[in-house]
Write a structure and sequence with these properties.
The protein has about 350 residues and is an alpha/beta fold. It has 13 helices and 7 strands. It comes from Raineyella fluvialis.
Length: about 350
C-alpha cells in the first residue's frame, strides 16, 4: 500500500498540470484528454480518494474551450466517464468478491473537531517537523498549523473572488481533497489525519497558498510584500532546519528498528509471534485487517463486525486502538464464547468458540 502512494501523487499532480495547461491555452486537446483519463483511472485504482479528481476534470472540461452549452456538457460527461474507468473496475471486482463496491470500512469515525485538530497538527509539522513532544513544540506546531489553515481558506477565497481560471484545477482539487479527508475521518474508521494522507495534496496546497498570497499582496498595498517576504524567509529556514533534523533522526531510527507495522517492536511482539505460530489454514479476523496482515504475514484476514462475529474456531485479532480511537471489547456479540489467548500492548488474540 505504501509503495502505491508516490505513484498516486505523481499521477494526481500530472493530471493537475495538464488541466492547468488546458485552462491557460483555453482548450483541451484530444491527446491531453486521453492522458487525463488514463492518469485519473490509474490513480483511482491506487487510492480510492482519487475520485476527487473526477469532478475536477468534469469542471475543467466544461469551462475550457468554446462552443454551445450542449457541447460543453457532452465534453465533460465523456471525459468524466472515461476518467471513471478505474473506479468502475475496482468497484466491479469488489462486488464480484462479495464486498462493498468501494471496499469494506467500519463506520463510526471521530468527531469533526478531532479530525480538524489532527489536520492542524499535521500542517504545523510541515513547518516544524521536530519529534520532540514538549508543551512548547506542541504549542508552536498547533499555532503554525492554525495559521496555515487560515491561509488555505483565505487563499481559496481570493482565488474564487479573483476568478483566476488558471488556478481553478488546483484550487478545486485542494478544496475537495481536504473536505474528503474531514468527511471520511468523521464518518468512518480512518487512519489519523497524518502526513501520509495529506502528502498527495501538499504541493497543490502550497500552490493555492502562493496564489492567494500573490492576489492578497496586490490588493492590500505596498507594505505587504516586505512583510510576506520576511515571513517566507523565516518559514523556509525553519522548515529546512527542522526537516534536516527530523529526517536524520528518522533515517537512523528506521535503519535500526524498521518502519511502521514492519518495525522490530511489532514483528517481534508476542501477538505477532503467536499469529505466526497458528496453522496455515487457521481462519483469522480483525478490526484492522491491514495491520493484522503485517503481523501474521498471511492474506485472507477478514474485517470483523463486533456485533456479528465469525464462526467458531476463528481467531480474532482485536487491536486496542484503530484510527486513533480506542476499541471497546464490550461491544462484542453477546452469547458467544470468547477465549483470550494472549494480550500485549497492541491488542488481544481471542479464540471464538
Amino acid at each position: 500500500m505504501m509503495l502505491t502512494e508516490p505513484l498516486f501523487t505523481v499521477l494526481a499532480l500530472g493530471t493537475l498540470v495538464i488541466l492547468t495547461s488546458a485552462m491557460r491555452v483555453g482548450r483541451l486537446t484530444p491527446l491531453a484528454a486521453v492522458a487525463v483519463a488514463a492518469f485519473v483511472s490509474l490513480a483511482t485504482t491506487l487510492r480510492i480518494s482519487g475520485v476527487v479528481l473526477i469532478p475536477t476534470v468534469a469542471v475543467v472540461a466544461f469551462v475550457v474551450g468554446h462552443g454551445p452549452w450542449g457541447t460543453a456538457v457532452l465534453r465533460a460527461a465523456v471525459l468524466s466517464a472515461t476518467s471513471s474507468l478505474g473506479v468502475i473496475a475496482i468497484a466491479s471486482r469488489n462486488v464480484m468478491l462479495g464486498a462493498a463496491p468501494l471496499g469494506d470500512r467500519p463506520t463510526g469515525g471521530q468527531s469533526v473537531v478531532r479530525v480538524l485538530a489532527q489536520g492542524v497538527r499535521t500542517l504545523g509539522r510541515y513547518i516544524v517537523p521536530v519529534e520532540m513532544k514538549t508543551t512548547l513544540i506542541n504549542a508552536v506546531t498547533v499555532s503554525l498549523g492554525t495559521v496555515l489553515v487560515g491561509l488555505i481558506v483565505w487563499s481559496l477565497a481570493h482565488i474564487v473572488r479573483s476568478r483566476e481560471s488558471v488556478a481553478l484545477p488546483v484550487a478545486l482539487f485542494t478544496a475537495l481533497w481536504w473536505s474528503l479527508l474531514v468527511y471520511s475521518g468523521s464518518t468512518t474508521v480512518l487512519d489519523s489525519l497524518d502526513d501520509r494522507l495529506t502528502a498527495p495534496v501538499f504541493a497543490a496546497t502550497a500552490v493555492v497558498i502562493a496564489l492567494g498570497l500573490r492576489r492578497g499582496v496586490r490588493a492590500q498595498g505596498r507594505w505587504m510584500p516586505k512583510t510576506m517576504r520576511a515571513m517566507s524567509v523565516v518559514l523556509v529556514v525553519t522548515s529546512i532546519f527542522g526537516g534536516l533534523v527530523a529526517s536524520s533522526r528518522f533515517s537512523m531510527i528506521a535503519a535500526r528498528e524498521g518502519i511502521g507495522f514492519n518495525d522490530v517492536h511489532a514483528t517481534r511482539s508476542a501477538l505477532a509471534l503467536s499469529l505466526a505460530a497458528l496453522p496455515p489454514d487457521t481462519r483469522i479476523a480483525s478490526n484492522d485487517p491491514f495491520r493484522a496482515y503485517w503481523l501474521a504475514r498471511r492474506s485472507g484476514i477478514e474485517l470483523v463486525d463486533p456485533g456479528s462475529l465469525p464462526v467458531d474456531g476463528t481467531y480474532l485479532v482485536w487491536f486496542t486502538e484503530v484510527g486513533g480511537q480506542r476499541s471497546d471489547v464490550a461491544t462484542f456479540e453477546p452469547g458467544r464464547s470468547l477465549t483470550p489467548v494472549l494480550s500485549d500492548g497492541q491488542g488481544t488474540l481471542i479464540r471464538i468458540g
